[in-house]
Design goal:
The protein is built from 13 helices and 16 strands. By secondary structure, it is an alpha/beta fold. The strands form four sheets. Strands 4-12-11-10-7-5-6 form a seven-stranded mixed β-sheet, with helices on both faces. A four-stranded mixed β-sheet has the order 1-2-3-15.
């Protein structure tokens, strides 16, 4: 089919994320991708400042990941995980236990980030049942968060300014503390209020779920690392299961391999996804401690009540093993630090606020972004951007060169200047 025919069929039949079916936003046809660039029909290769929604940390067509995929496909592409196992899944679990914060030694392989958070919440609920507290069914979290689009996940996303406020009447009602502060000097006052809120609701709370160090789709907002210690202390004081959602922050994005390491904190449950396979295939994982696993196993069911058809998919697991090995065997920290240095140029943009953390840069405007206009301007500068609300931001592949990062900053500045 010709490009125009493909786009016409796309517009008529395909439903893209957060897009009207009756009046869909424009889409562009990608015909290839390699390194830090995607090739768009009629435009050519452009730097992907989004890393395919933050997942393609190694860039595209990486020879090691390509070979891992090919080699595994020659053995088997999929087999059910019920009653069966295979080497890629075992090896992936071993790698995840090795690189994750201390104590996380049980691994549930899910098929998407949202599902991994759903599983984490189930773990917390079943744990409380297992230790004799079945009345604990609510979750404590903070405003400004985002944890996915499935139902329980939506209930712990920001209840007002988030994407899911339209569902508020049908979602479970959770407990929301104030957004964690960015400055360490503001942590003590915030912590006092957060502790009081937790104490007031402790008897009903099963767990505490947060994105550590950086709130992603809720606004690309970093916060003080010491807040993570407050979360740990509150969870311990009230018997809550502490869940860190590192789907966006894991595998080096914020400057440490996991954001939890910035404060030396280990959660009871850890969710990972996105960069887990280097952007090749959908896969996520929920890790927990042996204590949580034992408590959960003492619940009335005796088993974790979840089992996706494609959990532990061998292709995805094989690529994930290769991706983790690329990171741990390479200089991911140096790459992230280099990108961070380049992103400092965003501070020259005239905007309401500029935020840079690790390989994340965000320019917040004082008005909503004209997404179509900003996207077109960025493409004119050789960059693919996907703004949302009032944010122009980037989470680029670690494979980006210094010139790529400079181009991203120039494109963001141009889009901001154009309003």
């Amino acid at each position: 089919m010709r490009a125009e025919d493909l786009l016409a069929h796309d517009r008529e039949h395909l439903w893209h994320p957060y897009t009207s079916m009756l009046d869909p936003a424009p889409t562009r046809l990608v015909t290839g991708a390699e390194g830090s660039r995607i090739t768009i029909e009629g435009t050519g290769p452009v730097v992907d400042a989004m890393a395919s929604w933050w997942s393609a940390v190694h860039g595209y067509r990486h020879p090691v990941l390509d070979e891992a995929l090919r080699a595994q496909a020659e053995r088997m592409s999929h087999v059910m995980f019920g009653g069966l196992t295979h080497e890629p899944a075992v090896e992936l679990a071993r790698r995840l236990v090795e690189v994750s914060p201390a104590g996380l030694d049980r691994v549930f392989l899910a098929d998407s980030g949202s599902v991994s958070v759903e599983v984490a919440m189930k773990m917390a609920l079943q744990y409380q049942r297992g230790v004799g507290r079945p009345e604990r069914t609510r979750f404590l979290t903070v405003r400004g968060g985002y944890h996915g689009d499935t139902f329980d996940c939506m209930s712990v996303c920001d209840p007002g300014g988030g994407m899911h406020s339209m569902w508020s009447e049908v979602l479970p009602q959770q407990v929301f503390g104030e957004r964690p502060p960015r400055e360490e000097s503001d942590v003590e006052a915030w912590a006092e209020g957060f502790r009081e809120l937790a104490a007031a609701h402790a008897g009903a709370l099963a767990g505490l779920v947060v994105e550590p160090l950086l709130q992603g789709a809720g606004g690309m907002r970093p916060y003080a690392a010491s807040c993570l210690r407050v979360f740990r202390e509150v969870a311990d004081e009230h018997g809550l299961v502490l869940i860190f959602d590192e789907i966006a922050t894991g595998f080096g994005r914020t400057g440490t391999f996991f954001a939890a390491e910035a404060a030396g904190v280990s959660p009871d449950v850890l969710c990972v996804g996105k960069a887990l396979t280097g952007g090749y295939l959908t896969l996520a994982a929920t890790l927990c401690t042996s204590r949580i696993a034992r408590g959960l196993s003492a619940s009335d069911s005796g088993v974790l009540m979840h089992g996706p058809t494609f959990m532990g998919n061998p292709l995805a697991c094989a690529v994930a093993v290769a991706s983790i090995d690329l990171l741990t065997g390479g200089d991911w920290a140096g790459e992230v630090a280099r990108i961070n240095a380049g992103l400092q140029a965003l501070h020259q943009v005239d905007a309401a606020e500029v935020r840079v953390l690790g390989a994340v840069g965000a320019v917040e405007l004082d008005h909503p972004v004209d997404t179509a206009k900003a996207t077109e301007i960025a493409l004119e500068h050789g960059v693919w951007l996907r703004p949302f609300r009032n944010l122009l931001y980037t989470m680029p592949p670690y494979a980006c060169s210094d010139e790529d990062v400079a181009a991203i900053c120039t494109a963001i500045a141009a889009a901001a200047e154009a309003g």
